[in-house]
Amino acid sequence: MTDNPLLLKFDTPFQTPPFDLIKAEHYKPAFVEAMRQHRAEIDAIINNPQEPTFENCIIPLDRSGLLLERVASIFFNLLAAERNDTMQNIAVEITPLLSEHSDNIGMNPLLFNKIKAVYTQREHLGLEPLALRALEKFYDDFVRKGANLDQKDKDRMMEINAGLSVLSLQFGDNLIKETNAFQLVVADIHDLSGLPNTHMAAAAEEAKAAGFEGQWLFTPKKTSWIPFLQYAQNRELRDQLYQGYYMRGDRNNENDNKAIIQKMVNLRLEKAKLLGFGTYADYVIDNNMAKTTDNVYDFLNRIWTPALQVVKEELAAMQKIADRERAGFDIESWDWWYYAEKLRKQKYDLDESEIRPYLLLENVRDGMFYVANQLYGITFEKREDISVYHKDVEVFEVKEADGAHLAVFYVDYAVRLGKSAGAWCTGFRNYLKTEDEEVFPLVSIVCNYPRPIEDKPVLLSWDEAETLFHEFGHALHGFFTRGDYRRIAGDLPHDMIELPSQIMEHWAGEPQVLKEYAKHYQTGIPMPDVLINKITNSAHFNQGFMTVEYVAAALLDLDWYSLNQTFEGDVNAFEKAAMDKKGLIKEMLPRYRSTYFSHIFDGGYSAGYYAYLWAEVLDSDAFSAFKQSGDIYNQELASKFRKYILAEGGLDDPMEQYKRFRGQAPSEEPLLKKRGLK
Ligand SMILES: [Zn+2]
């Protein structure tokens, strides 16, 4: 018998984790035991002497590893929200064991043979569509890793993967070194004219830490270079700092990334060809909603053309300001932020301090609960009897309109030592239905909002309020996900996963909704129309630039991974040709040049950088359906969105599911309108 709470049935309300009983020393033995059980479950499938069937192979595979999922979700969520040395040490010890464990299952040839045997007869098994889809996904997971290759190709695949992981580490390492190597040290305060005090203070801190006490230090980190380019009047220094940023990895020194890029695109091409695809982009996009590389090119081009038109207008408006000020030069890439800021002040001035008093944290929270209630009828009841990992965390029981239990929802708002930066949505358990029981999800949002100081209220910025709605959209996806197979339940592809979250941002900013929740924390008066208009208008600011900058990078990514022959050319020449072909204006660069494009050489976005914008097309199009209906809480649309996207989005082809909700394929028009590009 064990007394490890992680390994016992949770004897708590809704079987929530008993955080008050879980101690650091429980994790490692729980991981070891959970991996042992998972291995035993897989061995039982492999060693079953009977012919493999859906029932004796796929179902037990789908149900396997539940205990490990439980232990890992609790551990890794706490590692992100409550990091300390003890947790960090456990992570260092356990992570390699976990990755070995998952490789041993995910690349197990005996297990694959069983799955393949079932897959081969799939047409004759009388499987219902969901069972068939789960089977196909399991089979595909193995095939996409090379399970069907002969031994020689398998060996080559392993070499390629090993090579790629070394190269991408080198790429990232070079980038860190290059980012740290460039320093703009300013000694004369006159050279900082225009820069707001907060940014000067930050630069003074940086300088002090780097041994330049009494001076100011600027670096190619975004929080440092962007404010400088935005505000500093010294044009010469703006140019120097911007070069410090965009020349990273391209200085022909020991940290140069060009040779690495060449090797990586070639290895990825070879990998795609081994797996039967013409290009690496084809291999990646085959698994996405977009399906084909051509679809993605067409999509990006439809955005590119109007955005390029608008960016030229933005440039002309900025040049006008420069001319009026008798600047005496044509605007260049390093002037963009400076004149855009002037344009912003002139046209869209949105002062955060005017907005914040209307965005009391509790009001924003109640606002998102209100929207969810209007759309789906669900309610939120605060619970004090559910254990939490930190006293900051609030817990709610989420109930259906008829009072039935739906989920447990944790919200961890405040910034704390040991919490990772940013905001995210996660969970401690997914929905699961088996023959014996139905288990409901435990979903959690973690943010880094300011801590309440004494009894002062927490007032959010507009960005922070939108972020709360965004993460809450992921949470709704978690509450509503259904399906009998874990492999496909809630499994939205990479280019669709942000639809549930981003669509909630539309409700957050909708005037009718703002009137409901954005009430002055002292007077209770709803946000006045002039402020609402400012929020709405500011959404159009600089969108030509933002869009072109982004799409240029997305096209560059796609061009690299659409190569169908070994690349032996020059990286910069390739990049220049890619941009020239699209007519990118010389006054700007793509958001990422190749030599510091981490997403695609050192992250999970190779041939997938387009996905952010693809998802934004979906959320804009989906929300426009509500708007067009004349009722932003349209019940018929809400119930279709819940069913086809949130509950069952993973259960069929994503485009088909989208059309079932929308009645038609998504269009770019609403996005172009929202960004002011049309
Ligand atoms: Zn998100």
Description:
The chain is α+β, with helices and mostly antiparallel strands and 678 residues long. Among the domains are: 5-148, Up-down Bundle (Glutathione S-transferase Yfyf (Class Pi), Chain A, domain 2), CATH 1.20.1050.40; 183-246, no CATH class; 355-538, Neurolysin, domain 3 (Orthogonal Bundle). Helix content is 56%, strand content 6%. It has a five-stranded mixed beta sheet with strand order 3-4-5-9-6. The longest helix has 32 residues, at 293-324. It is globular and about 85 Å long. It starts with 26 loop residues before the first helix and ends with a helix. The mean pLDDT is 96. Bound molecules: zinc ion. Zinc ion (ZN) binds next to helix 17.
